[in-house]
Design brief:
This protein is an alpha/beta fold. Among the domains are: about 230 residues, Rossmann fold; about 270 residues, Rossmann fold, CATH 3.40.50. Helix content is about 35%, strand content about 15%. The chain contains 25 helices and 22 strands. The protein has an eight-stranded mixed β-sheet, sandwiched between helices. An eight-stranded parallel β-sheet has the order 17-18-19-16-20-21-15-22. The protein has a two-stranded antiparallel ribbon with strand order 1-2. Helix 15 links the parallel strand 18 and strand 19. Helix 4 runs parallel beside helix 5, helix 5 packs across helix 6 and helix 14 packs antiparallel against helix 21. The longest helix is centred in the last third of the chain and has 19 residues. The radius of gyration is 27 Å and the shape is globular. It starts with a strand and ends in a 9-residue tail after the last helix. The structure holds adenosine-5'-triphosphate (ATP). The site of adenosine-5'-triphosphate has 19 residues, from strand 6 and helix 5. Adenosine-5'-triphosphate binds next to strand 6 and helix 5. One of its GO terms (molecular function) is RNA binding. One of its GO terms (biological process) is ribosome biogenesis. This is ATP-dependent RNA helicase.
């Protein structure tokens, strides 16, 4: 800690300066008149994350109890921030004399002290892959039905084709199996949907509803299924005899069976629900299927979906003798998917808009002489995705260059764990400076984390949420939405539609929203947790800057995680640093103050530190004064640790659980200390299900900020893996996300 001119300058960095690390981002601290504090050390020699404040016993009780009215804790004055009570060691954020449900007024967060060094990151020169979004060709120049052209022009409002449409539509009309790879948000849905509808409307004898599916479109999530179905409904408008339909988990199976019996000609489905119908719905036949489209193909062939996709393809092959056209589509087709395509597709054409590989045939796969069953052929393609046994991921194995939208501004911020929550709030509040509002997606690592932050932000005065009936709550302010795989189907769809239609708002979500969703007017993507692969990164940021528009993306990195930038640079992704100071300075804007404090409008914070510290205190009080909130925070913290332990092995040198400081990470969940049962909750049991001896846990420190956890104690045993696999299968049948992060 430096002190200048009587005031104290608090840095984000600790006192000790390791080799190769440079102090960066000092936060100016002119106004806080505090005495230099001596950090308390806990028994492990780490800083005790809490310091204590005398007094301030006045008035917080009533407001704290009344959580529905938002945060309402007093600001700290100079005296309060400077004073320090006797250190009382706390467990799970509870002070010794405090019961859950009581406000906790006597603790000051030491947010800006004893954080790890913020390393200086040297950005490497990257030559980005470029894609021209629009072609110079009009839809009217294609050999399409005149009604199709007028429908696209008048009802959809498009006359000029995108590059991927210009290349894919003629190829698909020609009847060839095709792989389509093009940036996110470049119109790939129409690139496959237009040729399917064009050919269907021309079939003789004319298509009848009772004939059942001619085209099958598989997508990985329910929201994407809805979206693709809605596009098809618009596209078939002039051809009323063609019936599109959608099947997805969470919907009533009985009504779906009824619709299948009546007949669906273009069937959009998620894999799990379709397998369910294949097994239980007699009326579902594939005898006339001519087109099979795998949208987000790399995701569909990933762990979890691959088995269902195999079942579906085998069912189609058994029932249908027709010549079929198969199309694989994604912004990130990995080498694994291409190898798979080479053995399962007939003379496939690969359309890669970035590489201009129009009509380039794929090289032969070394094992293409393998068995003819689809299931056997699918297996080798797993090289590019996660495997259950090893937990290995695709990063690094399938070195494939991705391209991102040209008008997307990509940034990262190095944020010490303790400052994550206030930095996120600063972004959320700061993103809403423009009077016209802004739409933002915040990606988090688990359903529990989404729920925790959703509850937490609701307590901010400047937030409004959706009511049961789908209308906004009375409170004026920035609408808050959430989306994850553990929500009820009704709520998922309600949130998805409400956010799509909203003029402004923040959607807190898991990777369930990462693929394919075309949510209008999204300007900001915040990745609060690092994605599991560069491909996931590309899809997440691809929810903005679509079809040539502008957008911004920000990736949160802890100081120990900065090497992740190299993973992105290897994929030719250019990303710049956004100084943390700049982000936190948003806390001083009137918008942020209104957002956070509401009723304290006009009562200005005097420095970034004061604003951040008060905010963190409010959050901690919110968490600790209510048992349900404390439980929710602990659950979210556990799920965060679990997700962290499941990063693919190729990323473990960067994202290793040992590198986490659990106490600091806990602070980002409003907890003042990591829950004491962390090991029990994260799989500290052996194969027989009995608890491991405490002393069997390896505790080896690499730094002051080391979690002290050994990954082997976090990684599940064989039995746990088998149980988890069973559970995943069950969840998948209900169409929930298979990966713990999702
Ligand atoms: N020719 C076009 N002109 C203008 N807008 C278009 C055109 N074709 C499609 N769009 C619009 O572009 C947006 C993105 O389309 P779409 O969702 O199909 O992209 P995508 O390439 O599939 O994205 P992702 O890879 O994220 O799934 C949609 O809003 C769509 O209506």
């Amino acid at each position: 800690m430096d002190s200048t001119g009587g005031g104290i300058v608090l840095n984000l960095v600790s006192n000790v300066e390791p080799v190769n690390k440079v102090k960066k981002h000092p936060i100016p601290q002119e106004t806080l008149k505090k005495k230099k504090k001596t950090p308390q050390r806990n028994t492990e020699g780490r800083e005790d994350n809490i310091s204590h404040q005398k007094g301030n016993n006045n008035s917080n009780h009533d407001d704290a109890k009344n959580e529905s009215s938002g945060f309402s804790f007093n600001f700290l004055d100079d005296k309060q921030t400077g004073s320090r009570g006797k250190g009382v060691k706390q467990k799970d954020g509870e002070s010794k004399n405090k019961q859950p449900g009581q406000p906790n007024n006597n603790i000051i967060s030491s947010l800006f002290r004893h954080n790890p060094e913020i390393p200086q990151v040297k950005i490497q020169k990257v030559t980005e892959n470029k894609e021209a979004i629009f072609s110079s060709t009009q839809f009217s120049e294609l050999p399409l039905h005149s009604f199709m052209i007028s429908n696209i022009e008048k009802n959809l409002g498009f006359s000029q084709m995108t590059t991927v449409q210009q290349r894919a539509i003629p190829t698909l009309l020609h009847g060839q199996d095709t792989l389509i790879k093009s940036q996110t948000g470049t119109g790939k849905t129409l690139a496959y949907a237009v040729p399917v509808v064009q050919q269907l409307q021309g079939l003789q004898p004319k298509v009848q509803r009772l004939h059942g599916p001619y085209a099958l479109i598989l997508v990985p999530t329910r929201e994407l299924a809805c979206q693709s179905f809605e596009t098809l409904v618009k596209l078939v408008k002039p051809f009323h005899w063609i019936v599109p339909g959608v099947l997805m988990g969470g919907e009533k199976k009985k009504s779906e069976k009824g619709r299948i019996r009546k007949g669906i000609n273009i069937l959009v489905s998620t894999p799990g629900r379709l397998v369910d119908h294949i097994n239980t719905t007699e009326a579902l036949t594939f005898s006339r299927v001519r087109w099979v489209i795998l949208d987000e193909a790399d995701r569909l062939l990933d762990l979890g979906f691959e088995k269902d996709v195999t079942t579906i393809l085998n069912a189609i092959n058994e029932q249908c003798q027709n010549q079929k056209q198969t199309v694989l589509v994604s912004a990130t087709l990995s080498e694994g998917v291409k190898r798979l395509a080479n053995i399962t597709l007939k003379d496939p054409v690969f359309i890669d808009v970035a590489k201009h590989q129009l009509d380039k045939a794929l090289p032969p796969a070394p094992w293409s002489a393998s068995s003819s069953s689809t299931e056997e052929k699918l297996r080798p393609a797993k090289t590019g995705s996660q495997t259950e046994e090893t937990g290995e991921g695709e990063t690094g194995e399938d070195a494939e260059m991705f391209s991102v939208p040209e008008r997307l501004k990509q940034q990262f911020a190095i944020v010490p764990s303790k400052l994550r929550l206030v930095a996120l709030t600063a972004l959320v509040a700061g993103g809403f400076k423009s009077p016209s509002g802004c739409k933002m997606l915040v990606f988090l690592s688990s359903c529990e984390s989404v729920d925790f932050h959703y509850t937490l932000f609701q307590a901010c005065k400047g937030c409004s949420i959706l009511k049961e009936d789908g209308t906004a709550s009375k409170r004026e302010g920035m609408p808050l939405f959430r989306l994850h795989g553990s929500m009820s189907q009704a709520e998922r769809i309600k949130m998805y539609h409400a956010f799509s239609e909203a003029r402004k708002g923040v959607l807190l979500c898991t990777d369930v929203a990462a693929r394919g969703l075309d949510l209008p007017k999204v300007k900001w993507i915040v990745q609060y947790n690092i994605p599991g692969s560069a491909a996931d990164y590309v899809h997440r940021v691809g929810r903005t800057a679509r079809i040539g528009k502008e957008g911004q993306a920000l990736l949160f990195l802890a100081p120990s995680e900065v090497e992740y930038i190299r993973i992105l640079e290897e994929q030719q992704i250019r990303i710049k640093e956004q100084p943390l100071d700049d982000i936190l300075s948003s806390l001083m804007t009137s918008e942020a103050q209104d957002f956070i404090h509401g009723q304290f409008k006009g009562q200005r914070q005097r420095s970034v530190e004061e604003a951040a510290t008060n905010l963190q205190l409010r959050y901690e009080n919110h968490v600790l004064t209510n048992t349900a909130h404390t439980q929710q925070a602990r659950k979210a913290f556990h799920s965060f640790i679990r997700a962290y332990a499941t990063y693919p092995s190729s990323l473990k040198h960067i994202l290793h659980i040992k590198k986490l400081h659990l106490g600091h990470a806990a602070k980002s969940f409003g907890l003042r200390e990591a829950p004491s049962n962390i090991h029990d909750r994260i799989g500290n049991t052996n194969a027989r299900g009995t608890k491991r001896k405490q002393n069997s846990m390896k505790v080896s420190s690499v730094s002051e900020f080391d979690s002290g956890l050994d990954e082997s104690t976090l990684m599940p045993s064989k039995k746990q893996k088998a149980d988890a696999k069973k559970k995943r299968r069950k969840l998948m049948l209900q169409e929930k996300r298979p990966h713990p992060q999702k």
